[in-house]
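ok trying again, last paste got cut off:
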Amino acid sequence: MRKIGCLVLAIACTALAQTNPTQKLARDILSELVSIPSTESGVGSTPAAEAAAKRLLAAGFPAADVQVIGPEARKKNLVARIHGSGKRKPLLLLAHLDVVEAPRADWSTDPFQMVEKDGFFYGRGTYDVKDGASILLANVIRWHQEGYKPDRDIILALTADEENGVANGVKWLLDHHRDLIDAEYCLNTDGGDFLLAKEGRPLAATVQMAEKWYVDWKLEIINPGGHSSQPRKDNAIYQLASALLRIQQLQFPAQPSDIVRSYFAKEAALVGGQPGADMSAAAAQPPDAAAIARLSQNGFYNSLLHTTCVATMLQAGHAPNALPQVATANVNCRVLPHMKIDEVRQALTNAINDPAVKLSVVDTPTAAPPTKMNPEIDAAMASTVGKMGWTIPVIPVMETGATDGKWLRLAGIPTFGVSGVFIDPENNRAHGKDERVGVREFYWGVDFYDYLVRALGN
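nice, full thing came through this time. structure:
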């Protein structure tokens, strides 16, 4: 396995010096998209959607097949279509255009200028998920220019508001223009990150079948306050801090789903050693508690096994010389699919153990059922992995974050998260500073999606 992996890497690294035209196009698109600050405080998604549309029209797409639409001027979506023979229902390809905030002072480079160095492309969105948008857009242009005629329509949707809400993106398209994106199933590049071993060889191709659901809780303490020269015993900041420290110690029970157990069972042989043995033990019925405890020391494995809640924002006080009258915090929970909100509320209430702390839901959360494996997807993934020259397994996974796949699953459109891009799971910089994607891995993703869609379109 190691020798085969190293050989593949050597071949791929040599090939990088001679990128094919679609890879080069994808790189140019990624650079352009990164330069557009499609954040909530920036310009929104519309300029990125318009830039994508401009490229499609320049490539010869009929104007009727390229639409930039949305309910809000700053938050529009691109939807484009390649017409097939119509023998089967369409295939939807999905990525989002909005990105999280990226303060320049936090970064070693300008987050909105793509920089290539040390084998990586740096910039906000290079990993989440303008790389996916660029890979899909470049391939759609390739297929159109080659005159590719699949047996189903191929729909490209580059959407708004995955990171910054739900009002304008996939949910809006489903509610108001479902006909534009209705499909037999969807491939979502915002999920199913392929895994690299520590030495950089491909380890596994993953397919995201489920995801945790997302809920924000507001913790609030109201206090009479007063002058800071006469401190009160019931300081709102101290009370809130104590509550947050108790939440820090909260550990939800390990509840590995069938998808997670399958993931651990398959990855165990790839990882080996004590971690591999622990994965096998965690996949057993019942799972081994000691193995669960050891795996839970790793942030990624812990999030696969447990519901998690973590403080993400704080606000308190109104003057430096006054006692705080209000102290609030946001606690973000990522909840296992089967778990109910009342269970989470009760666990938080028990952990806080202070009636002075008001606990309320910020937004109404929505959970989606897992997607069942489709034999056609399974076969196409296996054949594509083989065409790429990789000797690696295809493993179903549960996403620990949240994606727009939730809305499609709830609407009855099975959604499979397939990023096509390998990452080092120990160095995931999504939403963080110096976000990056591997140059080699990005170019692989371009060709991977070409093979995959052709396998599903013929």
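cool. The chain has 15 helices and 19 strands. The radius of gyration is 23 Å.
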